What does this fold into?
Amino acid sequence: MSAITTIDKLDWQATLFAPELNRLAVMRLSAPPLEGPVLRVLRNQAFETLVPVLAPLFGFAGFGMSVELGEYDDSLNLPDEPYAAALVWLDFARYERLTDDELAEWMVGRLDALRAHAGGPLVVANSPDPGARAERLNAALDAWASRAPAGAILRLDEIARPLGSRAFVAADRAAVTGTRYADPLCLEAARTLTFGVLAQAYAAPIKALAVDLDNTLYAGVLGEDGPDGVRLTEGHANLQREIERLASEGVLVTILSRNEPADVRQLFASRDDFPLRPERVASWQVSWGEKSDGVLAAAKQFNIAPDAFLLIDDNVGELVQVSSRHPGLRLLHASDDALATARALIRYPGLAAGGRAFAGRAADLAANAERAALAEQAVDEDAYLAALKAELTFALDPAEDRARLTELSRKTNQFNMALRRFDEVEVDRYLAAPDRCVVHVKLADRLADSGSVGALFGRLEDGRLVVDELCISCRALGRKLEDAMVTEAVRGAMRQVGASGAAFEYGLGPRNQPALEWLAAFVGEPVTGEAGRLNVPPDRVAETPRAAVTIRWAHD
Amino acid sequence: MTERIDTEIAEILSLTLGRPVGAGEDLKRADEPKWDSLKHLEIIFAVEGAYGVSFSPDEIAAVASAADLRTKVLAADAA
It folds into this structure.
């Protein structure tokens, strides 16, 4: 079959977000074959029966990957074949001759060797077995993943716990199936691997939710039932709590509803039982107009593209209409079972796991109106910056910020100079190599803390700093700070690698025109072709950045 | 009930083997080149998940046709 359509995904939702995956139901989804970058499975047990389940999961998550299975290998040898990502799928019960400590030490050693051998996500399925030996091993794996670039754990222990005895099969059956892991454990492992682990690296990030009201956020119709008549069921409360949690972690929330604005204001003012509080809502798009226009307005307000939204709505027609106008926008159908909607939202691929998004994003956005007013009142740019009291904080090679630096490279679009899209392993190389460096930029002004907003990745080449990548978050754009930010970052990077000049690499993409226009103005030369390099005139980086901006280095 | 089981077993075989299988058709493993050991496990797991039955190792090895799958499901239903 051809590519998965929006309608397919809506049809697949109930199956792929079911409390427990059902193999026959998944088989019915008839996904296209697995194609794309290779996920290599390094294993000492069967994985074959998971492969057909991965096709619809990858398809729904929106990334293509193929799967290649290695030979059974207890010694976890380094594979000769190239791959984009690797999954270590070992039955640790086979290492009975090793003590608990020996097993943990050996595994970490092999994982370090694998990490050094190739880049890309390196995912390790931990031990689902109960007992102290598995706990000791899993703790060692967690510690490894917390320090290894692009290292991740597929937590089979957490999947196995609620399954109890259904997680495993008896030894005689394992001899036939090739693994002690029962099908319910394997199916859930496939889903968690895709939606929970690989999606963090490969799925397009969701930065905002657009949420309908009637029969989505509560049961009932506001215009008919009134603010006190709409019902908050247990399922709707769960859904609201999940939206509230995501908002607290920096996912922007828009209310997108065809209702009277006054009714909606009254609803949120009077229903203090609603877990989702109005102060968490960063944009109110309440009108009788098209919802696709509401998404566009919120996208402009947030300075992000419409395809970075997840739209949650009970009306399939409206879901399809909005998605036809904004291709790439993700959809979640709010069914009558709000618990199912909440469950799907918790797992939805593309939402950052573990609160990695910037929690202060909504407050920072809310300050934009006041910043715009300051810009209008100021007589010139310096006066505006002085009124803003912007403070830029720079850090050189901050290894502890590796995850955020990777996120900046992978998720920024408008101001991403070369579109290199580094993964954690590549970022680690810039952080660690003596002839390379990374400058991480944070921004605050008198109105709000914008947090981490910029990254420069550079290397020394023939005495010159070559900026391989320069990324600035959309949150920091529009404040006339780009020149000051980049000038100081380049100066710091030049000092760090001992360069006497600088040049920028660039690449033309569908959305990074703002970055290229800035570059052309900064270096005084046009940007031409699909990709290239432009030298920075020496006087540009010799200049002291604007006095109206406070510059600080983290180590000062 | 029997008709639904026949239809679903045919569907499982059809989806696994990638070719149409008619409801009630007694497809035999020996006659179907695509029904290899890996597909065999996928079929067994799909039947187990669909009907809440469990095949012993001996039963897994003994299944040689669509009729064997049907017999197992009906026996579990009767029990």
User: Anything to note?
Assistant: Chain A touches chain B through 16 residues (CB under 8 Å). The two ends of chain A are 59 Å apart (CA to CA). DSSP finds 22 helices and 17 strands in chain A.
